[in-house]
Specification:
The protein is α+β, with helices and mostly antiparallel strands and about 350 residues long. It is built from twelve helices and nine strands. The strands form two sheets. Strands 1, 2, 4, 5, 6, 8 and 9 form a seven-stranded antiparallel β-sheet that branches. Strands 3-7 form a two-stranded antiparallel ribbon. A hairpin with a 6-residue loop joins β1 and β2.
C-alpha cells in the first residue's frame, strides 16, 4: 500500500476510502488518539467469543431466529487490515454470492462464531483477533503475522439442511410419527434450497430438491382441516418444477407439472402461463392459446402473459406461411383453393 493512501494521524482519510475504514477513523478521532483505530473501535463492540477474541458491532438489525450450527449461509463480506482503505478479501463484487456451509466452507473460526450470532438481513462489523483469524503466521503476502482483522458481513439468508437431510432419510412410517408442521417445514427448506440452486442456473440440482419436497408432501396424509396447508405447499413446488423443466428444455414435463398445479388451483395465472409456454415450445398452438388466454383473463395487465401471446401470434403466422409454401410446392397453381381466405391471423383477444 502506498504512503499516500494512508491517513495522516489526526487528519481525515483520503477521499474515496472504504465506508468501513471511514467509520473506524471517525470513532477513533472522536474518542481521542489513545491506541490504534481498531483498539479504539473495540471499546464499543460486543464480546461474541467470551474472551474478546471476536467483537461485534451491529450496523443494521436482522429478523427471525439466529443462524443454526449446521446452516448454509448466503453472505456478502469484506475483510480489512488496519490502516488500509481497500479490502484484502471480498465477495461483494460477485453478482450472486456462493452458498457456504458452516463447518465446511468457512475457514475463519471468528467468522463462523460471528455468523452464529446473526439473524437474516443483519449487517454487522466484526474484529477478529489473530487466534480467530489467521493466527501467529498470518497469510503471506497479504496478512502479516499476529494480525487483527476487521470484517463487515451482511447475512442475506441462511438455510439449515441438516434437519431436512435427517428427516428425508427416515422411512415413510417414521415420518408419519412427526406432526404436519414438521413435514411442511422440511418441504419448505427443500424448496428454498431448490430456489437457490435455480438462481445459480443449476437446474438439474434444483429439480432434485423440488422433487424431494414434493415426495414428502405426497406421502403425507393430513386431516381434512389441514389439507389446505399441504395443497398450498404442493402448489408452490409444482410451479417451480414446471418452470425448471422449461429451463431444461423439457416442455412435456413442464406441462405435466403445470397441469398438476391447475388441479389444485384452476385459476392460478402462473400455472396457466407455464402450461401455455410449454405448449408453445411443443408447437401445440391452439392449446398454448387456450392456456394463455385463461392466464390473461386472470391477470389482464401482466406483461409476461401479453408478450407470450404476441410471440404465439408471430409463431403461428410463421407456421401458416410455411404450410402455404409447402402446399404451393405440392400442388400445381390453381389447385391451392384450399388455402384461400386464411390470412394466417392468430388474433390476440
Amino acid at each position: 500500500m502506498s504512503a499516500s493512501s494512508r491517513p495522516v494521524d489526526g487528519m481525515p482519510p483520503v477521499e474515496g476510502a472504504a465506508p468501513v475504514y471511514r467509520a473506524c477513523w471517525a470513532w477513533g478521532f472522536c474518542v481521542g488518539r489513545r491506541g490504534s483505530p481498531y483498539q479504539r473501535l473495540s471499546h464499543r463492540m460486543l464480546d461474541v467469543s467470551g474472551d474478546r477474541g471476536v467483537l461485534k458491532d451491529v450496523l443494521r438489525e436482522g429478523s427471525g431466529g439466529l443462524v443454526t450450527p449446521d446452516a448454509s449461509v448466503l453472505v456478502k463480506y469484506s475483510g480489512y487490515l488496519e490502516h488500509m482503505d481497500k479490502p484484502f478479501d471480498s465477495n461483494c463484487f460477485r453478482k450472486t454470492p456462493r452458498l457456504m456451509k458452516l463447518g465446511e466452507d468457512i475457514t475463519l473460526w471468528g467468522m463462523e462464531l460471528g455468523l452464529l450470532s446473526m439473524r437474516k438481513g443483519e449487517l454487522a462489523r466484526f474484529l477478529f483477533k489473530p487466534t480467530y483469524a489467521y493466527g501467529t503466521l498470518g497469510c503471506p503476502p497479504l496478512i502479516p503475522p499476529n494480525t487483527t482483522v476487521l470484517f463487515e458481513i451482511e447475512l442475506l439468508d441462511f438455510l439449515d439442511s441438516a434437519e431436512s437431510d435427517k428427516f428425508c432419510a427416515l422411512s415413510a412410517e417414521q415420518q408419519d410419527q412427526f406432526p404436519l408442521q414438521k413435514v411442511l417445514k422440511v418441504a419448505a427448506t427443500e424448496r428454498e434450497f431448490g430456489n437457490y440452486l435455480f438462481r445459480q442456473n443449476r437446474f438439474c440440482d434444483a429439480k432434485v430438491r423440488y422433487k424431494r419436497a414434493l415426495l414428502l408432501l405426497h406421502r403425507r396424509s393430513a386431516a381434512l382441516e389441514e389439507q389446505h396447508l399441504v395443497e398450498a405447499a404442493k402448489l408452490l413446488v409444482l410451479l417451480n418444477l414446471s418452470f425448471t423443466y422449461l429451463k431444461l428444455e423439457r416442455p412435456t414435463m413442464a406441462l405435466r407439472y403445470g397441469e398438476q398445479a391447475l388441479i389444485i388451483d384452476e385459476k392460478n395465472a402462473k400455472a396457466l402461463f407455464r402450461c401455455g409456454q410449454a405448449c408453445l415450445r411443443m408447437t401445440e398452438y391452439q392449446k398454448a392459446r387456450d392456456f394463455l388466454v385463461r392466464a390473461q383473463k386472470e391477470q389482464p395487465f401482466n406483461h409476461d402473459i401479453n408478450n407470450e401471446l404476441k410471440k404465439l401470434a408471430s409463431y403461428y403466422r410463421d407456421y401458416v406461411d410455411k404450410e402455404r409454401e409447402m402446399c404451393h410446392r405440392m400442388f400445381a397453381p390453381g389447385d391451392n383453393d384450399s388455402t384461400e381466405g386464411d390470412d394466417g391471423n392468430f388474433a390476440i383477444p
